[in-house]
Write a structure and sequence with these properties.
- The chain is α+β, with helices and mostly antiparallel strands and 360 residues long.
- It has two domains: 172 residues, Nuclear Transport Factor 2, Chain: A (Roll); 117 residues, Glucose Permease (Domain IIA).
- 23% of the residues lie in helices and 26% in strands.
- It is built from eight helices and 21 strands.
- The strands form five sheets. Strands 9, 12, 13, 14, 15, 16, 17, 18, 19 and 20 form a ten-stranded antiparallel sheet that branches.
- Strand 19 and strand 20 form a beta hairpin.
- The longest helix has 26 residues.
Length: 360
């Protein structure tokens, strides 16, 4: 009888010990060095910003400030939206200093803004500029998609401080957020995804090395036609350079429409075209031979179709058909340097909280 009691006691003690171990393991604690901890809420909150093609650093040139070009340090591939930290979400930020707008898409973005703002065309253009790189803001939106926007002074024409796009359930679109931030050394702020990757893509060969914003992509719908080049807004007088070099084939044709303009044959029947210049660089005439990077003129606003200083850059094939420069050249994205990321993350997390208040 004594042996049976001892056996029962041993079984009971063993079960208690195993149960205690199970409780300790399930509760967990600080992970051991080298252990990877993945939380389910982190996976659930990742929205899936589209990834971009990686490029060879040897093939790229970074826009690094006033009229300068340098080699990139690395090539970045986008990651999904980075959620604000738990500690930040638990702290209410100061009162939002910017205007907040929530819009449900019904028709075009412009039409959906009509009841929210006095000039929906202007705000719609600014919102579209934040979205056209990885989505189709003209034809790819669905009724029931939502936009949440912070508006304010950014130091440039585009007044979008932060934007969050949320597609309705059941569509293939992915949600994403963008934030206006000025990288150290840049003349103007740009928009960045939540991981610090720039929304804007830069051409490997840029016709201009400092600019406020790309204000018109190739193929943008414009009434009864599509935009045939790429527009970069920049201060009047900013130098404009040939991306490839070649022989000047014509100057200032159709001046009323194009303003001061220049076309350069860049080989194999292709040509590059610059419109709305303030003026052509001194000494350039038809037949002039230019090397890659030579100044061809200066940013202006000449021609009846121009409403502000910018450069229209266009590539034509041998038949005179326009080709998107972003297809003709490779392109890449920059990433905020480590010294900017701490400030950016704080700014991003506060914007996320302010956007959350209008999405609930």
């Amino acid at each position: 009888m004594t042996n049976i009691r001892k056996f029962h006691f041993w079984i009971q003690s063993t079960l208690i010990l195993l149960l205690s171990l199970a409780i300790v393991i399930s509760c967990g604690g600080e992970p051991e060095e080298g252990e990877i901890v993945i939380r389910a809420e982190d996976l659930a909150s990742s929205d899936g910003v589209p990834t971009v093609d990686s490029l060879s650093p040897a093939d790229t040139v970074v826009f690094s400030g006033p009229d300068t070009l340098s080699e990139p340090d690395s090539v970045v591939t986008l990651v999904p939206d980075v959620p604000a930290s738990d500690s930040t979400l638990a702290v209410e930020p100061a009162e939002c200093p910017w205007e907040r707008i929530a819009v449900e898409i019904n028709g075009s973005i412009y039409a959906s803004l009509a009841d929210e703002v006095p000039d929906p065309d202007i705000l719609g253009a600014h919102i579209v500029r934040c979205m056209w790189w990885d989505s189709d803001p003209w034809n790819g939106m669905n009724a029931g998609d939502s936009l949440y926007v912070l508006l304010g002074e950014t130091g440039r024409e585009n007044q979008v401080i932060a934007l969050r796009y949320v597609p309705r359930d059941g569509t293939s679109n992915s949600s994403f957020s963008v934030y206006s931030f000025r990288m150290t050394g840049d003349n103007y702020p740009s928009h960045y995804y939540s991981d610090g990757t720039e929304v804007l893509r830069l051409l490997n060969y840029m016709p201009i090395s400092t600019f406020e914003e790309m204000t018109g992509p190739c193929g943008e719908p414009r009434g009864d036609h599509f935009h045939s080049g790429v527009d970069f807004k920049a201060p009047e007088g900013t130098p404009v350079r040939t991306c490839k070099g070649g022989a000047v084939t014509r100057l200032n044709w159709n001046y009323n429409y194009n303003g001061n303009c220049i076309e350069i044959g860049i080989g194999s029947g292709y040509s590059e075209i610059f419109l709305h210049l303030q003026g052509i660089a001194e000494g350039i005439r038809e037949g002039s031979i230019l090397a890659k990077g030579d100044i061809v003129g200066y940013v202006g606003s000449t021609g009846v179709t121009s409403t502000a200083p910018h450069i229209h850059y266009q590539i034509n094939d041998e038949n005179g058909n326009p080709i998107d420069p972003y297809l003709f050249y490779s392109s890449y994205r920059r990433h905020l340097p480590p010294e900017d990321m701490e400030e950016f993350i704080t700014f991003r997390d506060n914007c996320d909280l302010w956007l959350k208040t209008i999405s609930e």
